[in-house]
Specification:
The chain is built from 14 helices and 20 strands. Helix 6 packs across helix 7 and helix 11 packs across helix 12. The protein has 3 domains: about 90 residues, ATP-grasp fold, A domain (Dna Ligase, domain 1, 2-Layer Sandwich), CATH 3.30.1490.20; about 120 residues, ATP-grasp fold, B domain (D-amino Acid Aminotransferase, Chain A, domain 1, 2-Layer Sandwich); about 150 residues, Succinyl-CoA synthetase domains (Rossmann fold, 3-Layer(aba) Sandwich). By secondary structure, it is an alpha+beta fold. The radius of gyration is 26 Å and the shape is elongated. Helix content is about 35%, strand content about 25%. The N terminus is likely disordered. Strand 12 and strand 13 form a beta hairpin. The chain binds guanosine-5'-diphosphate (GDP) and manganese (II) ion (MN). Manganese (II) ion binds next to loops.
Length: about 425
């Protein structure tokens, strides 16, 4: 059973099926949110044109005096520093020593496709780059990279700050090889972060003096922004201690709980649909709860629970569902047609199982909807098995059987299952 679909499709509060619970945003947007709550971040300017990159660097130079810059690809994936731009071989995070190097560096990244350990083998188009001041400048003290994340610990019902001295690198391997180097601080959401907790974090990170003090402020601001932005996760890797003992966020991954987006229209506007599955985006626009999966049996179901059960049944037969799709309460012809079109966008689909329970919606109306949608769409090249149960199920079966279309009908679930099996073998 696909538990990924469960967690991604059910609202934890009202049980209303939702497409997803989380919205990812770009680093530059995340840094904007954090800095709005007083978190110190590496300064930068986002651009989407080569010409603007040099201007941005000049402005940064005027503001901070920096001569060195770092150019950072903006995609919804981490590991950019070690990733490679397919077209040019450049990495996704590159230091540019001097103003004149900025243009060449941006040329190697902007408009290319960046492949990282997190992009599942397909390079992601880089349509924006962030031009930042270099914050790893030499000075009195060593720079140090830490790891810090804020998330909810569902087991204890508390918020949690996870942090480590081993920042900058792949935190998963730190967790695996040296788990003792990862600390946890649990925060009671009713009490909020206490002063002693922020001090404990700074202490465990080995800080003293000005850096210690700055870290306690950083942690307090970070926690405040986590709570007030309705985020479900923050991951700041690295948090940097500069050579002059300041603490700042060099990278920022922010995931927002999209059930709370109605409270933050400015965050909702940050959604970058080009980073999401295009079919899921299209389904969302017409109000269908659709999650693409990897199998070959398309499912069209009403109700999230029945959709889960249908997916279970497909798995029990030894097949894999191609999607989760809840058409909701109004399974009329227009809606059924939208759902068919979305399911059929996936080339892996070899059969479609329509499993609808007619409670408020009558089965005969749904059957008519299926027939009308089918006729409207012309030839559909995959077998369709329609199982309608509930009010007027017998009439519905008759409508399907007498339609003359290549649609198989069933009333019992077992019968539907057998027909799916026949269709696929
Ligand atoms: P990620 O690879 O996608 O996680 O991107 P990051 O924003 O974490 O950047 C990757 C790495 O680039 C960081 O871990 C740093 O080591 C390095 N880096 C980032 N900003 C700077 C900078 O201002 N100067 C230098 N020298 N290195 C930087
Ligand atoms: Mn990072």
């Amino acid at each position: 059973m696909c538990y990924k679909a469960i967690s991604r499709t059910k609202s934890p509060i009202f049980g209303i099926p939702k497409k997803k619970n989380h919205m990812n945003i770009h680093e530059y947007q995340a840094k904007g949110i954090l800095s709005g709550f007083g978190v110190t971040v590496q300064r930068g300017k986002v651009v989407d044109k080569l010409e603007d990159a040099v201007t941005a660097a000049k402005e940064l130079n005027a503001e901070t005096g920096t001569e060195w810059f770092v150019v950072k690809a903006q995609i919804h994936a981490g590991g950019r520093g070690k990733g490679t731009v397919e077209e040019t071989g450049s990495h996704g995070v590159v230091l540019a020593k001097g103003l004149d190097k900025v243009e060449d560096t941006v040329k190697g990244i902007l408009g290319g496709h960046l492949e990282t350990a997190q992009t599942n083998g397909v390079g992601k188009l880089v349509s924006k780059v962030l031009i930042c001041e270099d914050v790893y400048y030499p000075g009195e003290a060593e720079t140090e990279e830490f790891y810090m994340s804020v998330l909810m610990n569902r087991a204890t019902g508390k918020n949690m700050i996870m942090y480590s001295t081993e920042g900058g690198m792949d935190i998963e391997s730190v967790a695996e090889n040296t788990p003792e180097l990862i600390f946890h601080e649990e925060i009671d959401p009713g009490l909020g972060l206490q002063g002693f907790q922020a001090r404990k974090i700074a202490f465990n990170l080995g800080l003293s003096g000005a850096a210690f003090k700055d870290m306690t402020k950083f942690v307090a601001a970070l926690y405040k922004s986590y709570v007030n932005s309705d985020s479900s996760m923050f991951e700041i890797n690295p948090v940097l201690k500069t050579s002059d003992n300041r603490i700042l966020a060099v990278d920022a991954k922010v995931t927002i709980d999209d059930n709370a987006l109605y409270r933050h229209p400015d965050y909702a506007a940050m959604r970058d649909e080009s980073e999401e599955d295009p079919t899921e985006v299209e389904a969302g626009k017409v109000g269908l709860s659709y999650v693409k999966l990897d199998g070959n049996v398309g499912c069209m179901v009403n109700g999230a629970g029945l959709a889960m059960a249908t997916m279970d049944m497909i798995k029990l037969l030894g097949f894999e569902p191609a999607n989760f799709l809840d058409v909701g309460g109004t399974a009329d012809a227009a809606r059924v047609e939208q759902a068919f079109r979305i399911i059929l966008k996936d080339p892996n689909v070899k059969a479609i199982l329509v499993n609808i329970f007619g409670g408020i919606v009558r089965c005969d109306r749904v059957a008519q909807g299926v027939v009308d949608a089918y006729k409207n769409m012309g030839e559909i090249n995959v077998p369709i098995i329609v199982r309608l149960q509930g009010t007027n199920a017998v009439e519905a079966k008759k409508i399907i059987d007498e339609s003359g279309l290549k649609v198989m009908s069933a009333i019992a679930l077992k019968e539907a299952a057998e027909k799916v099996q026949q269709a696929l073998s």
